[in-house]
Amino acid sequence: MPATRIGSSQQLLEELRAWVEHETPTTDPAAIDSLMDKAEAELRAVGAVVERIPGRDGFGGQLVARTPPSSALSNGAPVLVSGHMDTVWDHGTLEKVNAFRVEGDKAYGPGIYDMKAGSFAAFYSMREILRQGIKTRRPITLLLTSDEEVGSPTSRALIEAEAKRACAVLIPEPAGNPGKACVTARKGVGRFVVKITGQAAHAGGNWEEGASAVVSLARLITQLHALVDLPGGTTTNVAPIWGGTRPNVIPNEAGCEVDFRVATVADGERIVATVMAMAGKQPDGTTITITGGMNRPPMEEGPGALALYAKAKAAAAGQGYDLPKQHRGGGSDGNFTAALGIPTLDGLGCSGAGAHAEFEHILWEELSARTAVLCELLETLE
Known about the structure:
The protein is an alpha+beta fold. It has 2 domains: 9-185 and 299-380, Zn peptidases (Aminopeptidase), CATH 3.40.630; 188-296, Alpha-Beta Plaits, CATH 3.30.70. The chain contains 10 helices and 19 strands. The chain has helices spanning 9-21, 29-45, 93-96, 112-131, 156-164, 213-225, 265-276, 303-318, 334-339, 367-380; strands at residues 49-53, 62-66, 79-84, 101-103, 106-108, 140-145, 168-170, 182-186, 188-197, 201-202, 235-243, 249-250, 253-262, 280-281, 287-296, 325-328, 344-345, 352-353, 361-363.
């Protein structure tokens, strides 16, 4: 049990509601920064040392909050807890799609599951540890970012820098569904953009003079699909695709985007090498250009993650629930920290369902217990 007193799930939900009703699409840096302002004010009020990193490239800024030296029993490497404030939902979702509401054991709202409930739990835990004067074994660093939903292009370097300073990393992304599990491994995620140029020609009068970029793309798509290895954890997905102008014109341009997922670093290197080798001048006269590669390295399960999991499972038992673990296909910022060799435990947020879906919700009655587990880890890891 944490030494910090955790409020009831109803009390936590009332606070969380304000975060959910403050819409924060990744594309609106001002909206994200405004919610960061509220978190900063409350953290500063209880003694946290807060740093704000201004946004760039059209994204919001980042917030780093640290417990003061007097709050920890050790001045060693801190425990890092990292969450994101951005969501995939545009402004107006509350009114048009998924209003905040409570229906039985479910609380609905855009971004409530992915991952405002988890980020709020991290914020709440740090605030209450400081407000109540609880001594932790290690210092705590809270990182709240603004661009995770698009691959963390402006926050990745900061996440990695803070992880290198930490003894462990906790990621309060949503718990798994079904099973309400935390995450000890995630697949690596990569992207490619394919562009093909051919030779335009009249489809009837001089067909033989053309070189169809669309036909070349079709052959390439079958090669990309052949890389799928479900037992080994490798998948590819081609979408969207484009090409051509009119039925009577041999298309001189075509292209696609490719998502790929891999279970290991070695698999990622193999897929990148294989796909990049598909580029170049083709026998049919078309030319294939491919850009991209790995975006998030795999989060491979290791002894550090399993040790953190054992502590989290014991803490959950103290709160009266079982905490299974799982390997998940989707990526998170935990991929970055685990790849650095820092023990990382993910999926410590609230359970629920509907990430990126119109029925997104959490099981709100679990808020207190889930937050208590996170808080206990922040207090006791050493």
